[in-house]
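Exam prep: given the inputs below (a chain plus 1,3-dihydroxyacetonephosphate), describe the expected output before reading on.
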Amino acid sequence: MRKKIVAGNWKMNKNWAEAQQLAAAISEQLHTLAVDQNKEVVLCPPSPFLLTVKKATTHPQIKVGAQNCHQKDSGAFTGEVSAPMLQSLGMDYVILGHSERRAYFAEDNTSLKEKTDNALNNGLKVIFCCGEQLEQREASTHFDLVHRQLSEALFHLTAEQLQAVVIAYEPVWAIGTGKTASPEQAEEMHASIRQLLKEKYGEKTAEEMTILYGGSCKPHNAEAIFGQKNVDGGLIGGAALKVDSFLGIIEHL
Ligand code: 13P
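Solution:
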């Protein structure tokens, strides 16, 4: 059975005390929900708070991840954070290829391929983001675009390496807009991603991969979205910044 995940991407929000409080509260309240063994909650705070969040979370099913890492192990890259650094902090995950990183920091499929390799080589699991802009959906090129994002950055990996990758489909037009993809739109893309994985890696690998939906996922729409056959959880932005709304989403996992 494939793993179900709700991951919170805190983006560039919270100060140190707030991060600590939020992580501790999520951890504490998660103890009150019976969370099956195959479910996982991932918290991805800003880099300066990674260790604080790790220490504040005692629930065994909470993992912690970074929002980005560099493709090189070390060197003269002022301001960057490397995968070995994250590993040395005991981090479990790193988000790669978020649309905001693609748009504002010029990340492309080539650099994301290198980042993915480096993260995996350093023992991190990768939450790999893909997703189209509104113009691409309107031009009906969204499937091609997403397939290219995945094949160019991930499909050099072996099936074994791919086990440490979670795919997150985040249509850019749904991020932070309150305009979520319909459950049918999410399912249609997730099913096509799984079909692509099947063609490349075979049925077993495709069926085992976790594919998350992201983009204005909230407590009121999580049940319908997570209820889709090929949706295995969510990557949450705004609603991950408050205990109630984040737990309200986890309840539907
Ligand atoms: P929102 O949930 O705020 O739309 O953000 C989604 C996202 O970008 C998660 O990575």
